[in-house]
Amino acid sequence: MSDPTRRVVLVAAVADNGVIGNGPDIPWRIPGEQAEFKELTWGHTLLMGRTTYESIGRPLPGRTTIVLSRDPDWRPASSPGSEAVQVAGDIAAALALAKDTPGDVMVAGGAQVYAAAMPHATEQVLTRVHLTPEGDVFYPAYDEGSWRESAREDREGYDRIFLIRRTATA
Hints:
eight-stranded mixed sheet; alpha/beta; Dihydrofolate Reductase, subunit A; 10 strands; two-stranded antiparallel ribbon
């Protein structure tokens, strides 16, 4: 993204063993986590993969939705607001679409989308869930030395960690 004022933020809940999902399901329920996600992403652009979108089943209100899909014919199932969902075939096309959308780009999964967006990310907001559930979807590895923690919110059963990409001058 060429606009230095727009953030690309990876937003994920990650278990201690790196699991972020089990198939299309999230293998835990944390009271208040969905409200925190809503507050963090409201008014911004959500970028997610097709499987993540389909697990939600509709565009989330108050946010612009861009879905990554390798299938050029894929379109979201009809639901309120689905006509406004934009579809991109790769991360470059998705970020190009996002240039004309409101707010920052909030990447909401899944694993392949996080991995594709990682080189473009300026920040990560990770909910570190203190569990080791079974799962088959994992958050991608990243160079922790390239990121610095800017804030941490300790909660019962999880921590919310805010990371900012280090720059050459940081």
